[in-house]
Amino acid sequence: MYCFYLFNCLFEPSITRSVAAPHKTRVTGVSATSHFSLLAHTTSCMGTGINMFAVSHKTVFVVDHCPYMAESSRQQVECDILTKSRAQGMIPLAPISKSLWTCAVECSMEYCRILYDVYPTGKLVNYVVSDSEFHSLNGWRQEDQSTQELMSALAAIGPPNPQEDPECCSILHGLVAAVESLCSITEYQHEARKALMETADRVANRGRIICLTNAKSDTHVRMLEDCVLETIQEQNKLAAGSDRLMPIQQCELVLVHVYPQGDDTLVSDRAKKEISNVLISEVHSVRAGRHLASKLNMLVQHHFDLASTTITNIPMKEEQHANTSANYDVELLHHRDAHMEFFKSGDLHMAGSTSRDSGLKETVTLKWCTPRTNSVELHYCTGAYRISPVDVNSRPSSCLTNFLLNGRSVLLEQPRKSGSKVISHMLSCHGGEIFLHVLNSTRSTLEDPPSISEGCGGRVTDYRITDFGEFMRENRLTPFPESSGRDSSGKFPSDRAKAQLERHTRYWPMIISQTTIFNMQAVVPLANLIVKESLTEEDVLTCQKTVYNLVDMERKNDPLPISTVGSRGKGPKRDEQYRIMWNELETLVKAHVNTSERHQRVLECISACRSKPAEEEDRKKRGRKREDKEDKAEKNGKEDDKSWQDSERLKGPQEKEEQPESEIIKDSPDSPEPLNKKPRLTEEVQVPEKAKGGAFYFFCLEAKAPVDVYSLPALLGTSC
Which stretches of sequence are listed as region Disordered (predicted)? Predict the structure, then answer.
């Protein structure tokens, strides 16, 4: 237990020896109230109408402090185990027994600790102690939501006085104070009412009262329920005419009858029963000690939608034997959405293992995997939930939390008898708080993205990936300081961010082949400035210089980065390229022309530069005629090449047919050469090749007699 030895020392009058307080391991920190958290909670609940605040928003603990709560629980706790070795003749320490008050305080503090760990904000607890009067230990402020504050207040109250008159003490004082506390407005409700203004009545006021007492009988329980119902009706009448109070729409009363072990209970368990349209009551009769701890543990899970996960096979070195290690288990509580993937996939067989403390509570078992310290390795995470150990002061829990708080991460796998390993969760620490991350164990869309080649963009390399990364960097969202709210124009930071994103996306082509200006370095200054909400005179001058540079490029007839992906031929002509560029630049500036008067001046500069004089048009026409002549000459050259290749292909078979007729076969090696024999080439003359200048070169290989170059056409049957 979290406060076992501490409360025995503070509240048990029979224990006089000093016992050191255990190490208090804080798993998650409790953050203070801030305007940002209040606003975030309020806006997240918008649109839900009357369901804006659930019953779990307010919880009032009413703990009985009457003399009968000083009675022993009769569950003995051995103290002799604290000494490892005992000298001979030393009398062993006698076991101790906690009182009903100590058991109730310990279990209620565990309830609060788990709640604060999993929900640092938004879930509030008011702790009330009742004897001859009520004692409210804290309020609804977020600053008061801390186990340290509650423990200090409980230590000041002390244990019940067995000598006090029982007739003067009653749990009714605390129940009446609890109802009055539920009518008070919390900071979250106040912010929601201010945000809704005229429809402030839509903000609901619900709450829960958990009463730990020692009831006499079922009749006594019904009397307590009637008292709570009457008090709610009276307080609702008062709240109807007050701006500082809110009427209660729904109240859940959880009566926990605590009695010593070995006694027979006179109070029967009862499930939820609707007493009226405002009050719902349930009764639990529980023995003090570990049974009460298990009951409160199950209640906190039920009240706040928590679930249990047990991590098994955690390797841990033994204290007695440093060279050996043993496997331990640690049970964690978290929001039940962390198990949602199991229910979706149908893997419900893992939820069958029971917890160590109770045979009624279910837990999901996950196995420890090798810790990963590589922060670069990213996992497809679908959710992250705060955790709280069930036994926070045990050695396995303390070692696990310290291991994670040091920046390590632990992967958790599903226990399977066969098949491959399935890693479904990960434990990791962020900002001093431990989270259970849900990893996607099914096929991930991030691992195998769908092919985008079938879409409008074509190949992946056709997209402006680098530009999109820069676009995201310029429009990323960051937390804004609390002190800086609305600006001079009355806009929130989120509204300004949305407006900037809208301006940047008015004209933003996604594919490289769809844009010309975004592929030109010369247009970058204008493209970066034109999306601004306001331009200075210097910005306008920079944009005008950019336009003049483009005019100079067009005058010099410089090439433009026009993409020819998916097109045949040379692409558009030079003047057509510049026409496309000017049209796109005008489209970009027109998208922002209504932003300010200076944006209009930039558009006027572009329009003025596009209206060319007559001599400029004549020069463009002459340039187009010259390009047409070059294209025509190149086309004729290609046709000559084709006719030459066709004639050579037809001439080849004719030469092969004439060659056997002219060939003379020698009678013997000593026969003389014929007098009229022409020089014969020993190898076949190669087909003439076209050189860069258009001349033809012929190569004569191994001629028997001198060959005149000018006689080669006659030999080949062609003309130069």
Answer: 476-496, 613-687
